[in-house]
UniProtKB/TrEMBL annotation:
Name of the protein in its database record: General stress protein 17M-like domain-containing protein
Keywords: Membrane, Transmembrane, Transmembrane helix
Compositionally biased tracts (Polar residues): 1-10
Cross-referenced Pfam families: YflT
Classification via InterPro entries: GSP17M-like_dom (IPR025889)
Originating species: Lentzea flaviverrucosa
Region (Disordered): 1-22
Stretches assigned to the General stress protein 17M-like domain: 26-99
Transmembrane segments annotated in the record for this chain: 74-96, 108-129
Length: 174
């Protein structure tokens, strides 16, 4: 009998637990897009890309504010999400209904109940914040730079390929 922990570094399978990156740096880039382009180039050149990893260094959580929250926006969003859930539940009820075909009763009941509970939960959630977070936002994890690391046995070849890539002009369509 084999254990799933017998070989934690199986080829092509990422580790299950958080593991620090290993390997030698073969390139460093200001954006993830540039690092991705470098790895794409290695793949095109038949480089063993399974020995490569992109590592974001100096991570930052960036929260971009997308708008101001108001009671009307909160209630409209709550009603809409409740309506979708209620519609889903109503359609499920019609699937298991003994009557053939789609009946309006369960769908309408699910929709109205969903809107009601969506409004209530949105109002309670927003009201309990008491003006401490009156804005919407989207969060994103970004890095200051992106290093491409490679297994030591292939690092020299990888550096050479990426040096040739750096000599080529950037093609915006690729």
């Amino acid at each position: 009998m084999t254990s799933p922990f017998a070989n934690p570094n199986r080829s092509g399978v990422p580790p299950r637990l958080p593991t620090p990156p290993t390997g030698w740096p073969i390139g460093s880039y200001a954006t993830y897009e540039e690092a991705q382009r470098a790895v794409d180039h290695l793949a095109v050149e038949d480089f063993p890309v399974q020995e490569v990893m992109i590592v974001g260094v100096d991570l930052m959580l960036v929260e971009r504010i997308t708008g101001k929250l108001t009671w009307s926006r909160v209630l409209m969003t709550g009603a809409a999400s409740g309506a979708w859930f209620g519609l889903f539940v109503g359609l499920l009820l019609t699937l298991f209904s003994p009557e053939p075909g789609v009946t309006v009763g369960p769908v309408l009941t699910g929709l109205i109940t969903g809107v009601f509970f969506g409004l209530v939960f949105a109002a309670v959630g927003y009201g309990s914040a008491r003006g401490k977070r009156d804005f919407q936002s989207a969060s994103q994890l970004v890095a200051n730079r992106y290093d491409v690391l490679c297994h030591p046995k292939s690092a020299e070849k990888g550096r050479d390929l990426l040096a040739r890539l750096a000599m080529r002009p950037v093609n915006p369509s690729s």
